[in-house]
Amino acid sequence: xxxxxxxxxxxxxxxxxxxxxxxxxxxxxxxxxxxxxxxxxxxxxxxxxxxxxxxxxxxxxxxxxxxxxxxxxxxxxxxxxxxxxxxxxxxxxxxxxxxxxxxxxxxxxxxxxxxxxxxxxxxxxxxxxxxxxxxxxxxxxxxxxxxxxxxxxxxxxxxxxxxxxxxxxxxxxxxxxxxxxxxxxxxxxxxxxxxxxxxxxxxxxxxxxxxxxxxxxxxxxxxxxxxxxxxxxxxxxxxxxxxxxxxxxxxxxxxxxxxxxxxxxxxxxxxxxxxxxxxxxxxxxxxxxxxxxxxxxxxxxxxxxxxx
Length: 308
Prior knowledge:
Blueprint: E1 3-8, H1 12-24, E2 27-32, H2 38-49, E3 59-62, E4 73-76, H3 92-109, E5 114-117, H4 122-133, E6 140-142, H5 145-160, E7 167-168, E8 171-173, E9 179-181, E10 187-188, E11 191-192, H6 199-210, H7 212-220, H8 227-241, E12 246-255, E13 261-272, E14 275-279, H9 286-305
Parallel strand pairs: 1-2, 1-4, 2-3, 4-5, 5-6
Antiparallel strand pairs: 7-10, 8-9, 10-11, 12-13, 13-14
């Protein structure tokens, strides 16, 4: 029996994630949205494309949570997108209400699902999703670090004029502005990037990565990034469904790891059929510890605003 992936939110990120899943043939998809006709229309369009992709996956658009029942994975991409000049934190209260309502319904209909949170501010929304569903923290994961690492990889490949396939980047901390890059572990075919670029050049690319989402928002003016976020989400879905046990930077619940408790933060994890199967602890330098602590402090401030 094919696996079932439900995607909550039929906006650009949700619909593009749905496309990647049905195109791959890995699972059947349910695309949910509160707007009548939107998920149905997008699902029909994607279903008509499946024969062209030689995919036997099915996709259904719906406004009823009952259709998502029994999902193996639930992707939460519902919420309000950023507008020019807005930070991820500006979305806090509006999107918290969306997450709470979504998670109450998901907890009722898909008790064994693994949840991937995409909605911003992602780290805080992941913590809220975990608290609301009362699922095991191993089954509630935030997408963010994969996207940040991909952006840094792209910028490094352009700067060095090498294939992105040969670049590996590792980041920790909160998504976006609070990202903590580990340049010691960022390399091109094993060669540390610190030996390939001057310090100021690396710092410039890191800053562009931190502001990567805002850069796209400023260019689009009426929307935010969705191709790369959807691709990052699909990487997580694939690793879970195929039990690939890939090592990815994701927002995970820390219970003493890296010296912090009761907080969702971006750290390297092993993703498999059980969700987060292991948190990988990297020994940090004094400077990296300070940056990670600063990132945790920023995320905690927003968590406290929601009293979670």
